[in-house]
Amino acid sequence: MNTYHLDLLQKHLKKALERYCQLCDFSPDRQYYSNETILSQTKEIVQQYIRLFQTLNFLDRQTEYYHHGFIFTYQETVEEITASGEYKEIIKLLLEAYQHMAESAFKDRFFLPIHVQQINSEEIQIIIGIVTKEQRRYTISVVAHQTVYPSPPTSIRNDRYHYLVELLETYEPEENESLESFVNSKGLSYVKIRKDSKAIFGSPFYHHYLKTKMITVLEDLLLSTLSYKEIAYKNGFTGYYRLYRLFHKIYDFPFHLVPRISLKN
Predict the structure, then answer these.
(1) How far is Cα 214 from Cα 243, in angstroms, rounded to an integer?
(2) Residue 30 pLDDT more than 90?
(3) Mean pLDDT of 29-52
(4) Which of 16, 46, 61, 65 could form a disulfide with 148 if both were Cys (CB 3.0 to 4.6 A apart)?
(5) Using one digit for the tens of pLDDT, what is the confidence trace for 209-218?
(6) Contact 130, 111 (CB under 8 A)
(7) Which of 263, 262, 251, 242 is nearest to 52 (CA)?
(8) C-alpha span between 95 and 237 (Å, rounded)
(9) Among 30-34, 169-173, 259-263, whose mean pLDDT is lowest?
(10) Cα–Cα nearest to 128, from 140, 108, 111
């Protein structure tokens, strides 16, 4: 585990929570979603990502990363917004976002993911904001999750992996082209790629490529209504069995343990 893995986790968690909030925003049943439901479902999202990252050896398997979740609710009139306390800035941000989006979003309820935030050297706080407007009063609910922020090894330099990440983003394996041919076509050393991939990713380049594909698949498992076969094709797998084998046989991350949140809502 190093800073790259932590950055990857925060990036994908942020993306998944943004997607979740969009689903809530455009659901015809959004006004019936209780804060407790939002807390429960976003907790499930956070925990599933942590579990996958542990399975992929991006995070330590023995550490309990998830601490707890809680809800803080604040009420304010339209005429006088005077938020105070620990979440003053967050409440202000939520209200500003709501007022900015009010013309294009549903006015009765608005869901906003706030960026994953490191609140100290040992903990990350992940926040979802819910603004509900009833007549002349706002109800602002802050749904928060606190997780461990592990200290990565200082020996790994962030700038070492940038070229590998760029290579990952352009890599699309083809049946008639080997990884070595692809690397050579970019004017890079295949030997160096192997060495740096092992040092930064903790695994060979192609194995890590497959692991990153699993992360994007997890988002669709959680937050889409697509079938397993449709998810496989959407994420570039040549067939369902390849996806099944990767999750079930190689990494022991069976689909039935991943809640299909969108199918439940």
Answers:
(1) 9
(2) no
(3) 90
(4) 65
(5) 999 999 999 9
(6) yes
(7) 251
(8) 42
(9) 30-34
(10) 111
pLDDT at res. 242: 94
Q: What is the pLDDT of residues 94-115, one digit of tens each?
A: 777 777 766 655 556 778 777 6
Pairing of strands 109-120, 137-148: unpaired
At 60, the amino acid letter reads D
Q: Please identify which residue in the block is written with the tokens 């390849």.
A: 242
CB-CB contact of 134 with 119 (8 Å) = no
Cβ count within 10 A of residue 188: 15
Mean pLDDT score across all residues of the chain: 84
C-alpha separations of 138 from 106, 224, 237 in Å: 14, 31, 46
For tokens 């009010």, the residue is 102
